[in-house]
Amino acid sequence: MGQIDGYFVDCETLNTKEVFHQAHVAKQSNHIRPSSPYRVSFFMQIKYLVGRNFKRLKGDPSLAIFRVCGQIIMGLILSSVFYNLQSTTESFYYRGAALFYAVLFNAFSSLLEVMTMYEARPVVEKHRKFALYCPSADALASIISELPVKLASSISFNLVFYFMVNLRRDPGRFFFYWLMNIWATLVMSHFFRTIGAVTTSLAGAMTPSTILLLAMVIYTGFVIPKPSMLGWAKWITYINPVSYIFESIMVNEFYDRQFECSQYIPSGPGYENVDSKNKVCTAVGSVPGEPFVNGTNYLKYAYEYYNSHKWRNLGIAIAFAVVFLGVYIWLTEYNKGAMQKGEIVLFLKSGLKKHKRKNQKATGTALEDIETGKFSNDKLIYPSDIEEEEGGATDKRLNLSGTDNRPEIFFWKDLTYQIRIKKEDRIILDHVDGWVVPGQITALMGATGAGKTTLLNCLSGRLTVGVVTEGARLVNGHSLDSSFPRSIGYVQQQDLHLPTSTVREAFRFSAYLRQPNYVSKQEKDEYVEYIIDLLDMKTYADAIVGVAGEGLNVEQRKRLTIGVELVAKPKLLLFLDEPTSGLDSQTAWSICKLMRKLADHGQAILCTIHQPSALIMAEFDRLLFLQKGGQTVYFGELGQNCQTMINYFERNGADPCPKEANPAEWMLEVVGAAPGSHAKQDYFDVWRNSNEYQVVKDEISRMEIELSKLSPLPSSSNGRDEKESRLTYACPLWKQYLLVTWRTIVEDWRTPGYIYSKLFLVVSSSLFNGFSFFKADKTIQGLQNQMFAIFMSFIPFNTLLQQMLPFYVKQRDLFEVRESPARTFSWFAFIAAQITSEIPFQIVLGTIAYFCWYYPVGLYVNAEPTNQVVSRGVLTWLLQVSFYVYVSTMGHLCNSFLELPDAAANLANLLFSLCLMFCGVLAGPSQLPRFWIFMYRCNPFTYLIQAILSTGLANTRVVCSEHEYVVIEPPAGQTCQEYMSVFITMHGGYLLQSNNGAAESGTCSYCTMDETNTFLKSVNALFSQRWRNYGIFNAFIVINVALAIFFYWLARVPKGNRESRIKHRKEE
């Protein structure tokens, strides 16, 4: 203590802090505050960061190239849907739809920047703590460095799209169109970055992004034109930057342009000689007697758009971009990400109550609920401070015969393994010999790259590449059979577990699926409790595994990894791959003592280890040491304080080992495996010529002869055990499926953030969509609004899928890395369980979405005239539920053969965009080029929209609004009814009641549609085909499931038998 006090006095005397500050200021660049922790100014930071970003882009331009090429492809696909629109009134809707889709494509191309931000955030936070640069400088630098790619992407898409669609052929018009779309990209890029900066998690960012995206799409001005917007919601248009850009582009295309009329009313047989003043064009903005429609009038009456707003809207868009940029920069500087809570252990509520009672008993005082954090005694045992109180009680419970001594001895001889690299065979293991016996720990050591883990994988049969060209693996002198993978335990270096599972649940899951099926559940549970006691884990057996910092600590996780293998009752041996790697000395010692404990109870252990301390080294019985090239340097007993191994090397020319030296480090220096050291001789040759090597070969030959006289399995006399041991999996497929499905459902249930984000997304988007089209009337525009209400209900597709994929990938990684090699359960049970477990949640989401959307829109009102409210409501509910089930199956399909969830999300996004594009809403089959008709017919959304539309709108009357009536001047001497009767008989529609007789005003008001079936027929949605369409859509769900299973098998399930390939190679 005196030395510490003296140190503090010296620091105050020498004024160390001030000296350090002066040295820091001296190294700072000009124009920077002395109080700033940074060495260079803000603008210099931006300069260096931009340079770094461009170097990264130059080093890996694939993403930028892919983005530009993707934009060109999407431009070709999208523009081909609206290919070569003619300058007629028939193109009004499609021209507007093309511009609408183009603006949305440009604006929302930056949506995935939210994900990119969260990928980069840990690095930025780390560099900020190192005072390398400000987060705001990195934010500005990323925007600047991405500008060239965004400009290239924008011109790639818009150049193709503009001229293929046949938009206005004028240089000024084209450049204004491109200018507005560039600003659409920039505005929304800053907007999505702002959302990413204001939130602390990706899940928290994606849900509000989707809601705001939905609002921007609906209130752009095309889905619901301004004249049709509800008064209370119109204000959303004024704060929507995309609406200003869309208005300017529409004005740019339509203003002061004449469009030839495509259809007149009346026309056809009987009206060939009608004077032009007695007929009118059907388009909005038409004038009776005029053969064309002025685009200015169309914009005025259909959208309330004006040319005077064209350049004003550009200024507003720039203002939005500046505001979002400023907010984004400010947030990146001052809003920190999710903070770590420190190391704590989490329990289920039932586990908390149990610990509460235990703490009361331990402290002798009444303690309040652990959840509240209010305690009345400072001696409370907090979960993170749990001690292994019951370690001494373990030996009293060894009557359960968990790891009895077994006579099986696993040994291998002349094991040689090679892989092909660049058309050249490279030997990784070179004639390796050895054995493992029960009750002993064999250490496997070597330099980095010597093949330690490769040997472990080779012995356990887990190699995925390369081939074993020589050698054999034997158990009691017999070749390995199909029971071998289930006779061993393999503890991997990575501690992979489901974070939502408890310790006891993880053990039971492994025991239920890996112990023989004839063993009762009670026996398996008792054995799990035995292992929990054996591993001294009773105090946190009900704890949640969690994640780093909020869950089990490193040592507890390693014990859990070992325990998961032990509860499977490995009959032969236990492999451990560097169990002490990354652990501190105390934790490493604890794990080694645990291995010693297992060996003392009869377990055979083979363990790779990297540069252990002398204390840890003393816990091992034998050593297999490899040098680079997989060549054996030593195999034999270690002896007391490793003296047997030391004597061998000293006897073969090594310098004497100093008494204070660590034998492991000394040995690495002797063979030249330590940094900077060089071997005096090739110790592989030394070993092959040594007496110890000959003893090993003789012992292997003796074991092969004598042990082969024994039966391969001690239980072979029991027919049931022998038959069961030959099974690939311990449990039947149906049991695997049920247990894995239940585990997956529990994981989702114990992740409330995942469930709440889904619920919030579905409820908010459905309500917003429903009330945006609230009580849509039965006018022509009202029918179109209801169609778009159905169309917009599909918008949550991408976000729901992106929320689901990380959970699937997490379980898939656990299965493929640990559970599949251990033969815990089959790949079919895994993929089937993953698909099935999502269905209950999707049914609930679909039901909630139905009630939040169906009734506000008012689709049920259309069924009242025919008294079909219940039947049509039930069918609409079934369709909504089917859509949400389709989302989950599509997610599993996209990720069944792709490694990364981002790649699967991008693929799903592409498929979703194509489905929306070709479903018949934006462009019907009559508008589509003949080449794309197959996309319309193969599109699941085609049948879904047709089914919902026909169910929701059929068999009711249409009542035109005042501005939807077409005003016609009948010939002199004819009433409206006389003049229009023939046309109405052929084309439908009706006359305004007051116009049935002679028109006092001299004009007739005609509504082009009298019943909703006419509208449904125009979009190929027939009421008689509603159940057929429902069945077809569900067939797509079944196809998704079948393809997900097939592609998973094709892309991710290992094919063939490695042993047969080894045999074939040896014969060659």
UniProtKB/TrEMBL annotation:
<dbReference type="GO" id="GO:0016887">
    <property type="term" value="F:ATP hydrolysis activity"/>
</dbReference>
<feature type="transmembrane region" description="Helical">
    <location>
        <begin position="64"/>
        <end position="85"/>
    </location>
</feature>
<dbReference type="InterPro" id="IPR013525">
    <property type="entry name" value="ABC2_TM"/>
</dbReference>
<feature type="transmembrane region" description="Helical">
    <location>
        <begin position="825"/>
        <end position="857"/>
    </location>
</feature>
<feature type="transmembrane region" description="Helical">
    <location>
        <begin position="753"/>
        <end position="774"/>
    </location>
</feature>
<dbReference type="GO" id="GO:1990961">
    <property type="term" value="P:xenobiotic detoxification by transmembrane export across the plasma membrane"/>
</dbReference>
<dbReference type="InterPro" id="IPR003439">
    <property type="entry name" value="ABC_transporter-like_ATP-bd"/>
</dbReference>
<keyword id="KW-0812">Transmembrane</keyword>
<feature type="transmembrane region" description="Helical">
    <location>
        <begin position="786"/>
        <end position="805"/>
    </location>
</feature>
<dbReference type="Pfam" id="PF00005">
    <property type="entry name" value="ABC_tran"/>
</dbReference>
<keyword id="KW-0472">Membrane</keyword>
<feature type="transmembrane region" description="Helical">
    <location>
        <begin position="1032"/>
        <end position="1051"/>
    </location>
</feature>
<feature type="transmembrane region" description="Helical">
    <location>
        <begin position="907"/>
        <end position="925"/>
    </location>
</feature>
<dbReference type="InterPro" id="IPR034003">
    <property type="entry name" value="ABCG_PDR_2"/>
</dbReference>
<keyword id="KW-0067">ATP-binding</keyword>
<dbReference type="Pfam" id="PF19055">
    <property type="entry name" value="ABC2_membrane_7"/>
</dbReference>
<dbReference type="GO" id="GO:0140359">
    <property type="term" value="F:ABC-type transporter activity"/>
</dbReference>
<feature type="transmembrane region" description="Helical">
    <location>
        <begin position="204"/>
        <end position="224"/>
    </location>
</feature>
<dbReference type="GO" id="GO:0005524">
    <property type="term" value="F:ATP binding"/>
</dbReference>
<feature type="transmembrane region" description="Helical">
    <location>
        <begin position="174"/>
        <end position="192"/>
    </location>
</feature>
<feature type="domain" description="ABC transporter">
    <location>
        <begin position="410"/>
        <end position="654"/>
    </location>
</feature>
<dbReference type="InterPro" id="IPR003593">
    <property type="entry name" value="AAA+_ATPase"/>
</dbReference>
<dbReference type="InterPro" id="IPR010929">
    <property type="entry name" value="PDR_CDR_ABC"/>
</dbReference>
<keyword id="KW-1133">Transmembrane helix</keyword>
<comment type="similarity">
    <text>Belongs to the ABC transporter superfamily. ABCG family. PDR (TC 3.A.1.205) subfamily.</text>
</comment>
<keyword id="KW-0547">Nucleotide-binding</keyword>
<protein>
    <submittedName>
        <fullName>Suppressor of toxicity of sporidesmin</fullName>
    </submittedName>
</protein>
<keyword id="KW-0813">Transport</keyword>
<dbReference type="InterPro" id="IPR043926">
    <property type="entry name" value="ABCG_dom"/>
</dbReference>
<dbReference type="InterPro" id="IPR027417">
    <property type="entry name" value="P-loop_NTPase"/>
</dbReference>
<dbReference type="GO" id="GO:0016020">
    <property type="term" value="C:membrane"/>
</dbReference>
<dbReference type="Pfam" id="PF06422">
    <property type="entry name" value="PDR_CDR"/>
</dbReference>
<feature type="transmembrane region" description="Helical">
    <location>
        <begin position="869"/>
        <end position="887"/>
    </location>
</feature>
<feature type="transmembrane region" description="Helical">
    <location>
        <begin position="314"/>
        <end position="331"/>
    </location>
</feature>
<feature type="transmembrane region" description="Helical">
    <location>
        <begin position="97"/>
        <end position="118"/>
    </location>
</feature>
<dbReference type="Pfam" id="PF01061">
    <property type="entry name" value="ABC2_membrane"/>
</dbReference>
